[in-house]
């Protein structure tokens, strides 16, 4: 079944159909992705899978992900994750398969979006400029971003800083994903309303904060050179290997108008307060 | 020896006071400070270390310590930014590596900083799940359980994508 509209997606989730694969094609940030997944998995996906995604007609996709449901010899169900014909991995639970599909979609868009450079980072707006906190997944970005927003910064993203050719930072407009349930509740309460509206406009880069967690640390950073700041961002740049010139040029343009800092940080709440007081 | 900078497969971006080099052959990014950048740019295979030192001085407009040029050459060589056979360390009578590192520490910073460009890891864990459990947490773990679908009539915010 081709899921070609929002209504079809709702309908397909509202009843238990016989097991079959559905085809879901969508555009996000100029990238067309196609998912061929079991209906049971389709019903688990949150839409939009990637912020701003819109359904697409059939046509040539930039990447295809297939999830094949298999019964193992011991009667267990396994979900094989296959990208463009290559088996990436196999997982045993529907929840793990859902995570894999969402992660794949988000990272594939970040890699293939030709006109933008995605950097793994949390982003908030402060005094009409972007505060970017680079870091890979599970580095604590979402918690840091939430703490900054609680203290008056404007939410832009908890996963990617998205740079355009002029070096401006765009929002990645989705609810932050936090590991602690109470933090997730705070995020939903704080941002749920805002996220149903239009995202904020892109803003120039103001500050880059490169930090590592150490218990009981206070934020006493050293100022980085432009080159040091750029290296810190490139170390977290998704498309760096496939589009190195674009990545370097775009981010070099961005950092020339910004300040970079590096240091140890303590708990997110303390860090957020110290940071905003100093900017 | 007359050092020769490796320039093939390298893309350069100039910053105020620094140069960033992307090495496409090894997928590494190097940030050269002013001295290292001047040394690399002037290493054309025709200059001795003394001549390089004079060239760096002329470019910077300030006296330059020959030992700093040697340090830059050593770091450039270690970073793979000089052509093979430059042999800077042995030929130029550099101090031992331990002394050189000690000097760098005393000076406060290296002249060449390097990171490796990582390939994006998009995918689910490639390890087989252990008996009784699923693989370790995936990137962007979805915890708590997935958000339910938004109500009918929800319109996603525009996010820079193109309509087909």
Please give a handful of descriptors for the protein shown.
heterodimer, A: 279 residues, alpha+beta, Rossmann fold, 2 domains, seven-stranded mixed beta sheet, five-stranded mixed barrel, globular, B: 164 residues, Arc Repressor Mutant, subunit A, 30% helix
Structural features, described:
The complex is a heterodimer of chains A (279) and B (164). Residues 6-19 of chain A have low confidence and may be disordered. The longest helix of chain A has 19 residues, at 94-112. Helices cover 32% and strands 32% of the residues of chain A. In chain A, strand 8 (117-126) and strand 9 form a beta hairpin. By secondary structure, chain A is of the alpha+beta class. In chain A, the strands form 2 sheets. In chain A, strands 1, 2, 3, 4, 5, 6 and 7 form a 7-stranded mixed β-sheet that branches. Chain A has a 5-stranded mixed barrel with strand order 8-9-13-12-11. Chain A has 2 domains: 2-112, no CATH class; 117-278, Rossmann fold, CATH 3.40.50. Chain B has helices at residues 34-42, 49-60, 66-78, 88-91, 97-107; strands at residues 10-15, 18-23, 28-32, 112-116. Chain B is α+β, with helices and mostly antiparallel strands and 164 residues long. Chain B is globular and about 45 Å long. In chain B, strands 1-2-3-4 form a 4-stranded antiparallel β-sheet. Chain B is built from 5 helices and 4 strands. Chain B has a domain at 10-116: Arc Repressor Mutant, subunit A. Chains A and B meet through helix 1, strand 7, helix 3, helix 5 and helix 6 of A and strand 1, strand 2 and strand 3 of B.
């Amino acid at each position: 079944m081709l899921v070609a509209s929002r209504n079809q997606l709702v309908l397909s989730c509202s009843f238990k159909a016989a097991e079959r694969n559905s085809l879901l094609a969508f555009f996000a940030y100029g990238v067309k992705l196609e998912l061929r997944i079991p209906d049971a998995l389709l019903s688990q996906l949150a839409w939009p899978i990637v912020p701003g995604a819109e359904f697409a007609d059939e046509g040539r996709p930039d990447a295809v992900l297939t999830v094949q449901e298999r019964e193992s010899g011991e009667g267990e169900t396994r979900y094989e994750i296959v990208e463009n014909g290559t088996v990436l991995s196999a997982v045993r639970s529907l929840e793990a398969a859902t995570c894999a599909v969402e992660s794949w979609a988000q990272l594939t868009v970040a890699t293939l979006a030709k006109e933008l450079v995605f950097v793994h980072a949390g982003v908030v707006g402060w005094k009409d400029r972007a505060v970017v906190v680079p870091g890979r997944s599970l580095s604590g970005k979402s918690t840091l971003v939430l703490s900054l927003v609680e203290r008056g910064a404007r939410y832009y993203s908890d996963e990617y800083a998205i740079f355009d050719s002029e070096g401006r930072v765009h929002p990645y407009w989705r609810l932050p994903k936090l590991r602690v349930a109470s933090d997730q509740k705070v995020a939903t309460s704080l941002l749920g309303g805002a996220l149903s509206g239009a995202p904020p406009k892109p803003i120039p880069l103001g500050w880059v904060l490169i930090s590592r967690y150490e218990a009981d640390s206070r934020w006493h950073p050293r100022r980085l050179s432009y080159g040091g700041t750029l290296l810190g961002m490139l170390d977290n740049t998704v498309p760096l290997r496939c589009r190195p010139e674009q990545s370097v040029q775009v981010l070099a343009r961005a950092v020339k108008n910004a300040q970079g800092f590096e240091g140890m940080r303590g708990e997110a709440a303390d860090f957020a307060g110290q940071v905003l007081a100093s900017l | 020896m007359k050092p020769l900078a490796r320039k093939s497969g390298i893309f350069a971006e100039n910053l105020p006071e620094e140069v960033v080099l992307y090495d496409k052959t090894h997928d590494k990014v190097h940030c050269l400070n002013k001295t290292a950048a001047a040394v690399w740019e002037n290493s054309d295979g025709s200059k001795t270390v003394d001549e390089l030192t004079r060239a760096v001085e002329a470019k910077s407009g300030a006296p330059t310590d020959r030992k700093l040029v040697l340090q830059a050459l050593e770091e450039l060589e270690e970073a793979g930014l000089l052509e093979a056979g430059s042999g800077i360390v042995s030929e130029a009578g550099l101090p031992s590596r331990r002394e050189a590192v000690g000097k760098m520490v005393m000076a406060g910073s290296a002249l060449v900083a390097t990171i490796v460009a990582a390939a994006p890891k998009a995918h689910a864990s490639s390890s087989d799940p252990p008996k009784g459990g699923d693989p370790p947490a995936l990137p962007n773990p979805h915890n708590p359980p997935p958000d339910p679908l938004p109500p009918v009539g929800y319109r996603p915010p525009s996010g820079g994508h193109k309509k087909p």
